[in-house]
Amino acid sequence: MTTSRNIVIAGAGIGGLTAALALADKGFRVSVFEQAPRLEAVGAGIQLSPNATRILRDLGIGDVLKRSTVVPDALVVRSGASGRAIVRMPLGAEAERRHGAPYWMVHRGDLQAALVAAAEANPDITLTLGVKVEDYATHRHGLTVQMRHATGFDEEHCIALIGADGLWSSLRSRIGNREKPRFRNRTAWRSLIAAPEVPEPFREPLIQLWLGSDAHLVHYPVRAGAAINIVAIAHDSQERPGWSAVGARDELMKHFSRSAWSRDAIELLMRPAEWQTWSLYDMPELPQWGEGSVTLLGDAAHPMLPFLAQGAGMAIEDAAVLAGSLARSPGDVPAALRAYEEARRPRTVLVQQASRRNGAIYHKAGPEAFIRNIAMRALGGRRLISRYDWIYDWRDG
Ligand SMILES: Cc1cc2nc3c(=O)[nH]c(=O)nc-3n(C[C@H](O)[C@H](O)[C@H](O)COP(=O)(O)OP(=O)(O)OC[C@H]3O[C@@H](n4cnc5c(N)ncnc54)[C@H](O)[C@@H]3O)c2cc1C
Predict the structure, then answer these.
(1) Which residues line ligand 1 (CB under 6 A)?
(2) Helix (H) or strand (E) holding 61
(3) Half-sphere exposure of 75 toward its Cβ, with a 13 Å CA cutoff?
(4) Residue 256 in contact with residue 212, Cβ under 8 Å?
(5) How far, in Å, is the centroid of ligand 1 from the Cα of 259?
(6) How many A from CA of 13 to the centre of ligand 1?
(7) Pocket residue to mutate for ligand 1, from 106, 243, 280, most atoms within 8 A of Cβ
(8) Cα separation, 318 vs 144, whole angstroms
(9) pLDDT tens column, 57-111
C-alpha cells in the first residue's frame, strides 16, 4: 500500500469519522482506529446547528440522517418555577432560510451510525475497531503510528496522525499538554424515553429549556420523534467520569425540588425509570494542538461545556477545515496542520467561552434570575437567536 497519502485518525467519534469522510473526499487514504471493540448507540441527544449540518450535507450524509432527525420549530425558554414560557426563539424553516442549512436534533448513536455507514462504503477509508493508538515516531518520510489490540501491537505508516480521541485524549498529552480536563462542578443526568410515555406537550418538535436556580432542564424529541431526550443539569461536587454511569432518580430530585420547580417539570423528571450521569468538564485554551505531522481535533483539542450545544458542531467544523488545509498543501503536512490549527483556535476558544457564559446565565437565582427573564422578554426570540448568527453562519473558507 502506498503511504504517500495515508492519514491515520485515532478515534471514531463524531469528529474522527467526519474527518475521515472529509479527507477521503479530498483524495486522501484514511485509516481510522477506534479503541472500543464495538460502536454501540451510546450517548443521547445532540443538537446540530446549520454550521454543522451544512458540512454533513455536503459530505453526502444529509439524506440518510434526515430519516432519524427532528427539525425543531423553536427553542422555548421556560421559567423552571412557573413553567411559563419566557421567550420563543424561532428555528425550523426560519433557521434554514436564514442560515442556508437546517437545525437538527439527533441521537448521537444515529449520527455515528450514519457516519460509519458512509465510511464503510468509501473504498478510501478503513475503520478498525478494538485498536488503541498509543504512540508515534517521526521520521524523514512521515510517521510510524504504534497501536495496541487484543492480541498484541501493530504499526502503521502515514503522512499525518489526527488525534480525534476525545475529552481524555492521550495524544494531547503525548504532544506536550500535561494539563487534564477540569471538572466544572456540574452533573448532567440524562435519559432517553419512548415518546408515548410522556404527555403530548413534551413530544412537540421543540427544544425546551427550563431555567431554575443552580439547575436547568432541556428536552427534545430525537429518533424521528420516537424518543425524547431529557437532560437535567445541576451544580454538583461529585465527579463521575464517563458517559454512562448510572444515576439515581432520588439524587437527581434533590436538585429539582417540588417547592422550586413547576408541576410539569417534576412530572417529566419522574417519568424515566433510568438515568445516566455525565460530569461536565472543559479546559483552558491548549498551548499547542500539534507538533510536526500530528494534530488534534474535536474534544481532544477543545473540550467544552454543553451550554451552547456546539461540541459536535465544532468537531465537524474542525474536520472540514483540516481536510481543506491538507488538500491545499499535501507536500508540506506540518505547514498544513499548523494552518488548520491557526484557523480553528480563535473560533473554538470563543465558543468555549460563550458556553461557559451561558452556563452562568442559565443557573442564576433570585433577583438576578428575575432581571435575566425580563431582559430575555424585552429582547424577544428573534433578537436573542440572532446573537448566535456568528456560530450558525460559519462557512469553511
Ligand atoms: C460514548 C460517548 C457518548 C457521548 N454522548 C453524548 C451525548 O449524549 N450528547 C452530547 O452532546 N455529546 C455526547 N458525547 C460527546 C460528543 O460526541 C462530543 O463532544 C463531540 O461529538 C466531539 O466528538 P469527538 O469526536 O471529538 O470525541 P468523542 O465523541 O469523545 O470520540 C472520541 C473517540 O475516540 C476514541 N478513543 C479515545 N482514545 C483513543 C485511542 N488512543 N485510540 C483509538 N481510539 C480512541 C473513543 O473511544 C471515542 O470513540 C459523547 C461522547 C462519547 C464518547
Answers:
(1) 10-16, 33-36, 42-44, 46, 108, 132-133, 164-167, 170, 243, 298-300, 306, 311-312, 315
(2) none
(3) 23
(4) yes
(5) 37
(6) 5
(7) 243
(8) 24
(9) 999 999 999 999 999 999 999 999 999 999 999 999 999 999 999 999 999 999 9
Length of the chain: 397
Q: Which mutation among 21, 32, 35, 317 tests ligand 1's pocket best, with the greatest number of atoms within 8 A of CB? A: 35
Please name which of 225, 224, 191, 229 lies closest in space to residue 209, comparing C-alpha atoms: 229
Say which amino acid occupies 231: V
Q: Report the Cα–Cα distance between both ends of the chain, in Å, rounded.
A: 32
User: What are the cell numbers at 314?
Assistant: 465544532
**Ligand 1 center from residue 299 Cα (angstroms):** 7
118-153: per-residue pLDDT in tens? Answer: 999 999 999 999 999 999 999 888 999 999 999 999
CB atoms closer than 10 angstroms to residue 75: 24
Cα 120 from chain centre = 22
Distance CA 126, CA 158 (A): 13
Distance CA 244, CA 275 (A): 9
